[in-house]
Amino acid sequence: MKDITLKIDNKEFKFPVVIGTENEKGIDISKLRAETGYITLDPGYANTGSCESSITYTNGEKGILRYRGIPIEELAQHSDFIEVANLLIWGTLPTKVMRKRFTDLLTNNALLHEGLKHHFEGFPFDAHPMAMLSAMVNALSCYHPVLALPHSSREIEKAAAILISKIRTITAFSYKMSRGEPFIYPKPEFSYVENLLYMMFSLPHEPYEVRPEVKRAVDLILILHADHEQNCSTSTVRMVASSGANLFASISAGIAALWGHLHGGASQAAIEMLEEIHSGKMDVKQYIKMAKDKKNSFRLMGFGHRVYKNYDPRARILKKLSRNVFKVLKYKDHLLDIALELEEIALNDPYFIERKLYPNVDFYSGLIYRAIGVPKNMFPVFFAIGRLPGWIAHWKEATDINRLQIARPRQIYTGPAKQSYVPMDKRSAAISKN
Ligand code: SDX
Questions:
Q1: How far is the CA of 259 from the centre of ligand 1 (A)?
Q2: 300, β-bridge pairs
Q3: Of 41, 319, 349, 421, which shows the fewest CB atoms inside 10 Å?
Q4: In Å, how far are 55, 229, 239, 285, 311 from 51, measured between CA atoms?
Q5: What is the tens place of the pLDDT at every residue in 157-194?
């Protein structure tokens, strides 16, 4: 495609057009300011591409999500989380040898250094697990200084295994700490998800077995959360990586960004919204009315999406999964009935239809977590476990270039024009004049 021409102050400027694999088009404005003196302004970056990436593709209008070109529906059906992690990080589905090597690395790196384990004693018992997770992941660089800035493929593989394995242990230990229960250590013969659930829910004095349907459900949830282009937390990981910060610090920053209720924190907020409706505080119609009220900052949690202007393909899979898990566990939850009623009303309401607001990945995930006993404040933690391979893949892609380019957006200044310093004795008079 040829360049595009921009006419500014009767002068024409040409800018190259970048075309993606799926024919997405981007105007390369890297020389805009140098040539025209103008910058662009795009709060929230809804129209701005920060990079070219070969990891994940979404098409919001068609509800498409593909990891390295493979549709999420096929991965959900045929793959598992560890295979998807390798696909995202290395760009191909792992061979048997790669898979075995990575699985052994996960097993051998499941424990936390005793020094790191003692950090839990410093947190209040009711500390939010996302605060602990972000802090503990950042602290990993103190125990693995060399792997904090991995360069060779083997170093990246080891660092990825350390993170993906230990995020599970940190999650389980923070859950145990909140309940005053002893830490449970992983078993080498257990799979990734089995060990996560075993370390969280087993107790030393009684037998515990992970039901295969629950194991598969959690594995599937982690696959669905594994990556999603340049979302807020992934962009944060890339932004931090661009300064040359280490992998653990970048991931820790991603965890912090994911915690927000407009992002991964929505999984917890969505359940709290359904619980409030269930408590009778307000009914579904009142919530919908509040969500539509421009004067009210309330948003329907688990609804809407910056990219998807169609049903989030992950929400479609999670909705079906929630029903299957409830059936297998013979579990009833009024919150599912409320969620289905909320979705039904919203999807037939002109306000939501005009704005193309559909349930997103966070609308149904919490119902499944509830059914398997995961507490609300750990829903974003499970989101982080799933998203970790995506973050690592993006850190690798962002730093995999021969010259690191620090991310440093511009701004349009709207503060006071030049003014002089006001000595203390003149200030109150000066301020009252303003
Ligand atoms: C995730 O980016 C990703 O890929 C994220 C994610 C991932 O995998 O990483 O998919 C995970 O974060 C999913 C989103 C989870 N967040 C929530 O469920 C929180 C509730 N949703 C909204 O806050 C909102 O939809 C966002 C934040 C998700 C998207 O916000 P945008 O793109 O900035 O959209 P917007 O706020 O500009 O909304 C456009 C219009 C507005 O109305 P008008 O001003 O045009 O009249 O839609 C309205 C909004 O008021 N709107 C909503 C709404 N979401 C948007 N109104 C009521 N309820 C909502 N949920």
A1: 15
A2: none
A3: 421
A4: 12, 10, 11, 42, 26
A5: 999 999 999 999 999 999 999 999 999 999 999 999 99
Which is nearest to 215 in space by CA: 199, 200, 195, 201? Answer: 195
Among candidate residues 225, 228, 362, 394, the one labeled active-site is: 362
Question: Rounded CA gap, 26 and 16, in Å?
Answer: 9
Of the residues 305, 312, 400, 425, only one is catalytic, namely: 305
The set of residues, in sequence order, having a beta carbon less than 8 Å from that of 84 and lying 6+ positions away, is 67, 75, 222, 223, 226, 389
Rounded to whole angstroms, how far apart are CA atoms 41 and 410? 9
Mark out the alpha helices in 180-265 (DSSP H runs): 192-201, 212-224, 232-241, 247-258
Q: What pairs with residue 299 in β-bridges?
A: none
Task: Report in angstroms the alpha-carbon separations of 400 from 61, 110, 138, 379, 394.
Answer: 31, 27, 21, 32, 9
CA–CA distance, 182 with 160 (Å, rounded to integer): 27
Token reading at 118: 């003692």
Cβ–Cβ under 8 Å, residues 196 and 176: no
Contacts of residue 36, Cβ cutoff 8 Å, sequence gap at least 6: 6, 8, 11, 13
**Any bridge partners for residue 71, and if so which?**
66
Q: Is the CB of 262 under 6 A from ligand 1?
A: yes
Residues contacting residue 66 through CB under 8 Å, at least 6 positions apart = 56, 57, 58, 72
213 in Cβ contact with 103 (< 8 Å):
no
Task: Enter the pTM of the model.
Answer: 0.96
Euclidean distance between CA atoms 52 and 400, whole angstroms: 13
75 lines ligand 1 (CB under 6 A): no
What is residue 316's DSSP assignment? H
Residue 387: both structure tokens together: 């998203």
Q: Is 393 exposed, middle or buried (0-12, 13-18, 19+ CB in 10 A)?
A: buried
How many Cβ atoms are within 10 Å of 135's Cβ, its own excluded? 17
Active site residue 305: yes
pLDDT digits (tens, 9 = 90+) for 80-111: 999 999 999 999 999 999 999 999 999 999 99
Query: Which two three-digit tokens encode residue 428?
Result: 């109150």
Question: Which pLDDT value is given to residue 401?
Answer: 77
CA distance 104 to 109: 9
Torsion 238-241-243-248 (CA) sign: positive
Tokens of 127: 């500390």
5/360 Cα distance (integer angstroms): 38
